[in-house]
Amino acid sequence: MIAEESIKELLERASISEIVGEVVQLKRAGQNQVGLCPFHSEKSPSFNVRENDGFFHCFGCGESGNVFKFLMEIKGLSFPEAAEELASRYGVRLKYEGTKPQGPAPSSKDPIYAVNMLALQYFVRALREAPPQVSGYVQKRQITDPTLKTFGIGYAANSRAALFEFLKSQHVPEETIFLAALARRNEQGDAYDVFRGRLIFPVWLDQKKIAGFGGRIIPQLFDEETLARFPKYLNSPETPVYQKSKILYGIPQALPALRETDTAYIVEGYMDVVSLNQAGVRNVLATCGTALTDLHVRKLTQLAKKVTVLFDGDAAGRNAAGKSFTTFLNSGIDVAALFLPQEDDPDTIALKYAERSTEYLDGLPRKSLLDCHIEYLLGKFGVKEVRDLGSALKGKLADELAEAIHLVRNNVERAEYVERAALVLRIDPHDLSEMVRTAKGPRAAAPGAEIVSEEVSEDDRAAIAVPIEELPRVDRELLLCSMALKDSLPAKILKDGDLCTAIHPRTLAFVENLHVIVNDPALDETQKKERLKQLLKLFGNSWAEYWRSAYTMIKDKSVDPAQAFEECRRSIKKTKLLRLVSEIDREIALTSEDAEKMILVQRKFRLSRQIAELGGTHG
Questions:
Q1: Strands 55-58 and 64-65
Q2: What is the CATH number of domain 248-375?
């Protein structure tokens, strides 16, 4: 977890007007700066930035917060990711308390980001100067100049070490070039470029950072024998900044549409994203040459509430959809599969329907991932239809399906899966429900399991521990709900900028660490339990007692932790709005201009209406 002193240092060093100014065109208005809000459509500026106190607020839609909140909302980041972004930018070495995140320190990543930007300059210039075969290929794929610019698409020359020599001419150390996986050495020790004769797609993390590259071979540059030996698509190897299991292609370009619609399409290739985006389907992302992973889904929870996986209609596409069912379990995302006609893929759909692509995709039928998973299991058992199953095979299939449904933590969701699966398999739902209940692989241990903490030094305990009773009441209630629903609520909190910037730093640190432990795919349930014990020991006895209270809360059927969490969120929102009203009252008292006073009164009225809509939450 990130130390409180590091969070304070970031808030002191970060310039909110500088961060916001990269997205919003700001103009000076007295002590503040104003511009058009990036979170909703407006014609007159109502978005205010106050550099002195590091705060932004839109009087139109009500969005407000500090620099952490802005980055989280504008880039779809979690709180830890926003902190790492600011630390890298402002030269702050983050300090951690308790369990430190694994992976390279930010300082080791910076040279890779820098050399990747230099490589992009080379690729973009090479495309402008490319031979006719390359420009002809771009025209054949109907990629427009604005799209080339939007995605930073370039060209890797069909030359052995042109990029390597260019980077050396820019005084980039050879070890950095190899660390960024832009070049390799052969057995004789000679350097050669990873990408040659390919259209290049940079994988942007944000508007200033490139994690790696993908390359699509240009057929016109090679003979048939060479084309048969080379892969059509080539991705950067894993580096300290590029892990394919975590990264989704197209996030910076898709973010505005994702914020507007809260929905996302997931496709398989770079060109699918580029073509659909060009055709107006802008809420589209892709994996980077790998199947969807738990880490991809974790990232999606920060970006969208509904996801459609867009697959080819062939057997491979349908199997991929079926396998992804378990990956999305317990994510909190409503997900469905959409299969294209066998003669089409997302790229051809974009070319065929152009600006009508969104309408066309919206009109295609969706299929639940549960149904896709059942079809996938049928294939494993060598049949196409449920009616082709004998009694023994149907029992085995039901066993395997029950093990998957058993992993679902939400009772309502699990019951719906059982009912639907029983209908498809033509079996008694009560029988399937019993199979789910007794399936192997128990669900995540309930809060309140025996707590026997590992030894922690007194220095660590003193640095971390804050007695629960010293926290604000809303923090205590938020913690209780997070402990009770540890598999879902911490992720929601870390995604919610209002909560992250309003709660006590110790509350945020605990929630952050709880989220990391519960969602670590490298840990089994026993290891997670041990890590949770250590975490509670680190924070102090009162936190362990509170954990037991959360277990009691779950057993009390009259208490709904999810509803209590929503009440906490509304309370924090209401407190923030009340503070803004007080600030407007002060501005009204200080201004002598009737026109400005009228604008302030109107803003106060809108905020007061929002407060009224929140109802009688505790403050």
A1: antiparallel
A2: 3.40.1360.10
CB 484 within 8 A of CB 554: yes
* pLDDT score of 273 more than 50: yes
Q: Which CATH class is domain 4-90?
A: alpha beta
pLDDT band, very low/low/confident/very high, at 378 (cuts 50, 70, 90): very high
Beta strands in 26-113 (DSSP E): 27-29, 32-35, 47-50, 55-58, 64-65
Q: How far is CA 117 from CA 56, 181, 211, in A?
A: 30, 13, 10
**Contact yes or no for 276/265 (Cβ under 8 A):** yes
The answer, yes or no, to whether residue 153 has pLDDT greater than 70, is: yes
Collect all residues with Cβ–Cβ distance below 8 Å to 289 and sequence separation of at least 6: 214, 233, 235, 244
Query: Which amino acid makes up residue 460?
Result: D
Beta strands, E only, 76-223: 154-156, 183-185, 191-193, 198-204, 210-217
Secondary structure (3-state) at 373: helix
Q: How far are the Cα atoms of 262, 284, 311, 366 from residue 268, in angstroms, in the given order?
A: 20, 10, 8, 17
Tell me phi and psi for residue 98, to 5 degrees.
70, -130
Mean pLDDT of 68-80: 81
Pull the structure tokens for residue 181: 């996986």
Q: What is the mean pLDDT of the chain?
A: 84
At which residue do the structure tokens 């090679």 appear? 222
Among the four given CATH numbers 3.40.190.10, 3.60.10.10, 3.90.980.10, 3.40.50.1100, the one describing domain 107-235: 3.90.980.10
**pLDDT of 107:** 45
Q: How confident is the model at residue 612 (pLDDT cuts 50, 70, 90)?
A: confident
The arithmetic mean of pLDDT across residues 75-85, rounded, is 81
Is residue 453 pLDDT above 60, yes or no? no
**Residue pair 7/83 in contact by the 8 Å Cβ criterion:** yes
User: What H or E segment, with its residue span, contains residue 264?
Assistant: strand 263-267
**Could you give the C-alpha distances from 546 to 448, 476, 489, 519, in angstroms and in order?**
9, 9, 16, 21
| E strand intervals along 496-595 | none
577-588 pLDDT tens trace: 887 788 778 777
Q: Residue 599 corresponds to which tokens in the numbers above? A: 């604008």
